[in-house]
Amino acid sequence: MLLSLSALLLAMLIDRWLGEPPVRWHPVVWMGHYLGWAGRRLQRGARPSGEDYRSFWLGCLAWLGGAAMVWQAALALQALALALPMALAGLVLGFLLKPMLAWRMLRTEVQAVEQALQQSLAAGRERLSWLVSRDVSAFSAVIVAVSMKAGARARLIALSTASSVVNQRHSGRSARGQE
């Protein structure tokens, strides 16, 4: 529990002080590059009209493959970190957890959507489109506000899930060390 809390606290401090890592070192950017690459390859064989189930399922497999690669990399990095002394493990896990957090950026973007909504609904929709991957052109002001808040909640849920995984893994290591 202490390890998870120290890693989370460090990630929040890094986020507050430094913000996002440079683009070339950002895991989310890497995932975007992979998905762009996979999408371009899939579009070469896509049918120009009609239902293209083959491309759909290949896209699903590409997404799952990417998710599996990220999951394996995360597990490997976590295992390496947990093999370190607890204080150092907390530091390493905090740095590894930071890109998942992005609280500073998310807070800034939510505030920007709120300010844009005060100008006009169109401006609010435009700014929200930076945060979500769906068409926002038909969203009402209420839906724009709810979508913005839902994005913030989703980040918090992802963060708490990651923290609980680290806690479970560390608890298992501690129990094995006591045998």
How would you sum up this structure, described in words?
This protein is mainly alpha-helical and 179 residues long. The protein has two domains: 1-100, no CATH class; 102-179. It has seven helices and no strands. The chain has helices spanning 2-18, 27-44, 53-82, 86-101, 103-119, 121-128, 141-177. The longest helix is centred in the C-terminal third of the chain and has 37 residues, at 141-177. The two termini are 19 Å apart. The model is unreliable at 159-167 and 173-179 (pLDDT under 50).
- Overall structural class, as computed from helix and strand content, comes to mainly alpha
How many DSSP helices? 7
SSE run: HHHHHHH
* Count of structural domains: 2
Instruction: Please give the alpha-carbon distance between the first and last residues.
Output: 19 Å
Poorly predicted runs are 159-167, 173-179
The count of β-strands is: 0
What is the strand and helix layout of this fold?
Layout: H1 2-18, H2 27-44, H3 53-82, H4 86-101, H5 103-119, H6 121-128, H7 141-177
Helix pairs in contact: 1-4, 1-7, 2-3, 3-4, 5-6, 5-7, 6-7
Provide a brief overview of the structure.
The chain has 179 residues and is mainly alpha-helical.
